[in-house]
Amino acid sequence: MPDQPRLELHDLVRSYAGRRVVDGVSLSIAPGQVTGLLGPSGCGKSTTLRMIAGVETPEGGRIVIDGREVAGAGANLPPEQRSVGLMFQDFALFPHLSVSENVAFGLKGRGMGRAAQRDRVMDLLDRVRLARHAAAYPHELSGGEQQRVALARALAPHPRIMLMDEPFSGLDNRLRDGIRDETLAILKEEGTAVLLVTHEPEEAMRMADEIALMRRGRIVQQGAPYNIYNAPADRAAAAFFSDVNVIRARVKGALTDTAFGRFLAPGHPDGAEIEIVIRPQHLRIDFDREGGPRPTAQDGTPARARVERARFIGKESLVEFRLDHDGSRMIATVPSVFLPAAGTVFWLTVRRDRCHVFPAGA
Ligand SMILES: Nc1ncnc2c1ncn2[C@@H]1O[C@H](COP(=O)(O)OP(=O)(O)OP(=O)(O)O)[C@@H](O)[C@H]1O
């Protein structure tokens, strides 16, 4: 059955001290797919992962691997029978075993002949580019190399599912991108389904085919990274990925007036307070010439604003403005170096197609 999900979670529940930290999580991952379980600290990501691994028992719901229930009302398989590979931040290689012995460790007791074991170990070490370090000990390797041994060790027994909990957070920035890409390439070659737990949106967007955004024990949105970024379910989902500007307004006749002209607010009742959310890169900045740019149907009305502060933050510049209209603060990001002096007047326009309208306080 090519379409059968590798991993299915159905309505998983788990509480600690009477508090539900995982509150009805459902999820499905296809073979070869990488799903990023993304959310703020304490939202229940690791608890979900531990239930899949089998080191924690769900109090409700079911876990199914390749069509077979491994946890639920009728089953509770021990971790070693679930065909799950694990990779954590503190991945602890065995210090007294060589690199190849570390990788071979996961193959013990699987009825594999010595030659077949050696072939599998050497094949994996080749693929993580560590074959020449096969006889070295973990303390002789760099952090990135140790991480690659941990990956080879976790993959050795051909797990159906790889569970990764912030596996790259112990590595320094420069190493991290390279190791992430390599790891992903190898996982894809192996066809393993991956659940990657992270609280870093960038890591999830870089690695995952699909992101499940988790908050307070629940999955609030799930989909391709592009869709989650560009069509957030609510204000908090938008704000999780970047700074956001929020314009508060009240609805009258499915419309609302703002410093940027009228916005449509279909579906929001008269008198309701709404929030218009826009990312900093979707503000357009124009110089203060001839009374500013003309309003257009697409972009609405420009609003006059003064620079409060501008900083260069690497790839882009971050400029903070105050709107003349009501003194509210807006931030814009501009590619490369753009550092206007405080007090300089500009006109800001919001890209209407990139604005998201939500009920206030949702
Ligand atoms: N064994 C435990 N006993 C009591 N409370 C726990 C236990 N494990 C987790 N919790 C609580 O459950 C909540 C969810 O924890 P969990 O580790 O799943 O979150 P997380 O999203 O993985 O967070 P982080 O990104 O910080 O690791 C937290 O409030 C945590 O304090």
Automatic annotation (TrEMBL):
Q: Look up keyword Acetylation and say if it applies.
A: no
Q: Which CDD domains match?
A: ABC_Carb_Solutes_like
By its UniProt entry, which InterPro entries does this protein fall under? Answer: AAA+_ATPase (IPR003593), ABC_SmlMolc_Importer (IPR050093), ABC_transporter-like_ATP-bd (IPR003439), ABC_transporter-like_CS (IPR017871), ABC_transpr_FbpC (IPR015853), Mo/tungstate-bd_C_term_dom (IPR008995), P-loop_NTPase (IPR027417), Transp-assoc_OB_typ2 (IPR013611)
Tell me what this protein is called.
Answer: ABC transporter ATP-binding protein
Q: Name one GO cellular component term.
A: ATP-binding cassette (ABC) transporter complex
- Give the Gene Ontology MF terms in alphabetical order: ABC-type ferric iron transporter activity; ATP binding; ATP hydrolysis activity
* Residue ranges constituting the ABC transporter domain according to the UniProt record: 7-241
Alphabetically, which GO biological process terms does the record hold?
quaternary ammonium group transport
Pfam families per the UniProt record, alphabetical: ABC_tran (PF00005), TOBE_2 (PF08402)
The opening ranks of the lineage are: Bacteria, Pseudomonadati, Pseudomonadota, Alphaproteobacteria, Rhodobacterales
Tell me where on the tree of life, at the top rank, the source sits.
Bacteria
Entry keywords, A to Z: ATP-binding, Cell membrane, Ion transport, Iron, Iron transport, Membrane, Nucleotide-binding, Transport
Q: Does the keyword Nucleotide-binding apply?
A: yes
